[in-house]
Amino acid sequence: MKAMQKFYVIWIGQLISLLGSQLTVFGISVWIFQKTGDAVPFAVAAVIYQLVGVVFAPIAGSIVDRFPRKPLVILSDSIAAIFTFALFLLLRTGSLQLWQIYGVIFGLALADTFQRPAKTALVALLLPKEDYTRAAGLNQASEGLGPLLTPAMAGVLSVTIGLGGIVMIDILTFGVAILCIFLVSVPELTQAERHNNRQQDWRQDLTIGFQFLWQEKGLFILLCYFSFVNFLLTGTSNLLGPFFLSQGGADRLGLMQTIAGLGILAGSLAMAVIGKTRKRILTIVLVLQMMAIGMALTGYLTNLWLLGLTLFLTFACPAIASANSAAIFLAKTPQTMQGRVASARSMLATALTPIGTYWAAWSADNFFTPMLMPDGKLASTVLGHLFGVGAGRGIGLMFAIAGALLFVAGLVAYSQPALRGLEAFAAEAEPTS
């Protein structure tokens, strides 16, 4: 079996598992909103997930480079399945509470923190460099299929088998993912390479990925840019649920999530088909500028079809940027450091997202939403006339502000010579193991 064929088998298994997990996420999101009606519980769940990734990422990267990567992916999926089964038991006994959902989220985040660098490092060993962008595009496509397929599926399944049945399907999909990767033979680091990694002091080992990124100035600037993008994008994305539920109910939310999924899928498939782009850095900055414009317009517009168009743009562009970015980091990182660099990259790229997520939710509930209600302080101002007043309009103003900040950030990032020269620098210096 050829390398790309092996990747397809692994990818299909992970895709099926991801769809199952996103069915559960959709059902639990509706459960949380029905129980609380606030944006903050959404943010708390997201912050827990993000903080686990930030705190444990350096440890995960070190372990990935010290041990075989295929067993680590299987172990991570197995741990996630166990926590999902705990959620199933709580639902079956009728004792599910909000704090218990947070505990399950902690377990799932911990498993994902170890799986992601292990899977990234495995792909780097499995595929030649010319297939990195294609693989990254397919991985992004799997992220887009979830929002595209799960809302309608979750709606039907909620009526027929209930939330407990949905969670059980999720558990079974973990089994499919484990089986797919178990059946495929994948290359690993040699025992000598793993032995050399194990000889390093644990405390020093935790910092090696960060040292590598700091020394590669172009990569570091790119990472800082993505960190700021994630800070604003993740915070506002977590408000899409309250934004659309407050204006049109679950039907509108489901429709918009489907459109967002189509955007991610379109951008990802474009990269999977095209493969390597000639001007990766320019492509990244241009598509993220388009995303910023789309985000700002999403907050301003009220027409359903125009909202769908801007939301499609907002989610298609990051998929293109992420695929190009992932390929650059994979190609520049030595094979023996893939796990530690991937974890360091993940940690730094998402370090600000817990703050952004909670700040966005708190600001929406306590400042922006009250300010643009009919009796709010901004209702009679220019902002009130531009964005309208009522449910969801304060969150819309937040989207517009975030879009404007992202656009400025793109201009600042591209003004840096080290970032503009990254493509040429990467071509001159091929990584060694």
How would you sum up this structure, described in words?
This protein has a single domain (3-428), classed as MFS general substrate transporter like domains (Growth Hormone, Chain: A, Up-down Bundle). It has 433 residues and is mainly alpha-helical. The relative contact order is 0.15. The protein has 18 helices and no strands.
Question: Summarize this, please?
Answer:
The chain has 433 residues and is mainly α. It is 84% helix and 0% strand.
Lay out the secondary structure.
Blueprint: H1 3-36, H2 40-66, H3 69-92, H4 98-126, H5 132-160, H6 162-183, H7 191-199, H8 202-215, H9 217-237, H10 240-274, H11 280-300, H12 304-332, H13 338-350, H14 353-371, H15 382-387, H16 393-414, H17 417-420, H18 422-428
Helix pairs in contact: 1-4, 1-5, 1-6, 2-4, 2-8, 2-13, 2-14, 3-4, 3-6, 4-13, 5-6, 5-10, 5-12, 8-13, 9-13, 9-14, 9-16, 10-12, 11-12, 11-16, 14-16
Give the assembly state of these chains: single chain
State the total count of DSSP E strands. Answer: 0
Annotated CATH homologous superfamily: MFS general substrate transporter like domains
CATH fold label = Growth Hormone, Chain: A
Strand residue content: under 5%
Features:
single chain, 433 residues, mainly alpha, Growth Hormone, Chain: A, globular, disordered C terminus
